[in-house]
Design a protein that fits this description.
By secondary structure, the protein is of the alpha/beta class. Helix content is 19%, strand content 38%. The chain is elongated. The N terminus is likely disordered.
Length: 228
């Protein structure tokens, strides 16, 4: 990984947390994800969500058509760098923020406020995980809400830890096919299976050990960890 541009007092900032404008009831307590090596980015109404949780974002993106005049005044007062765009544009507000975050070359990007509400927004946000600009980089990106965490995995072997809060693990093919899937330590194990996009074979599995592994030889999987 190249050097991050975030260097404060000699310490690199290795994580960027982006808060988008999704419904607040799906957004967890954000301060749990705060830390010395974290920078916060607000997207449209997500900027106000951060301020409501007493977190001042480092930078903001959006057309801000979903905030009131009073909320907009507060955003301008509290956020040092606000990038405001016209509503008529080719990219969504979250895409603009994510592209900026990718260019900072962090180790990880967490995205909040990207689920719930309008399905077109949710599907568009999932598509952002598959942008070539992101797939070409070695940056872990995870979408997080109060009930789910999801990310993409490339071919190879991956380990997962058991979590009482996220009991279920699903594997969804993103590419046309995913080859040689092997699941070890799971309630429903697999060995060297091929699955195609549209298959539900790997939905709602569970770990039966403290940790497990999943591996595959070709393709891309979306890994979704969920609770009831």
């Amino acid at each position: 990984m190249g050097q991050s541009i975030f260097v404060e007092k000699g310490v690199e900032i290795m994580m960027i947390n982006i808060v988008a404008g999704g419904p607040g009831r799906y957004i967890p307590e954000l301060k749990v994800y705060d830390g010395e090596l974290v920078k916060w980015v607000g997207v449209d109404r997500g900027v106000y969500t951060l301020l409501e949780q007493s977190i001042e974002p480092w930078v903001a993106f959006g057309d801000f058509d979903s905030v009131t005049d009073e909320e907009w005044d507060l955003i301008q007062e509290k956020v040092q760098e606000v990038n405001r765009y016209k509503p008529e544009k080719d990219e969504t507000d979250l895409e603009l923020a994510l592209n900026w975050a990718i260019d900072q070359n962090p180790d990880k990007i967490n995205i909040f406020g990207a689920t719930g509400g309008r399905l077109d927004h949710f599907m568009g946000n999932l598509q952002l995980l598959m942008t070539p600009k992101l797939l070409d980089k070695d940056i872990e990106v995870e979408i997080i809400d109060v009930q789910n965490r999801l990310y993409l995995a490339k071919s190879g072997e991956h380990s997962v830890e058991k979590s009482p809060e996220l009991q279920y693990i699903s594997f969804v093919p993103v590419t046309q096919s995913v080859e040689g899937i092997t699941l070890s330590g799971f309630k429903y194990p697999l060995k060297n299976r091929n699955i195609s996009r549209g298959s539900t074979l790997c939905i709602s599995n569970e770990l039966i050990q403290s940790s497990g592994t999943f591996s595959f030889s070709n393709g891309i999987l979306m890994v979704i960890r969920s609770s009831d």
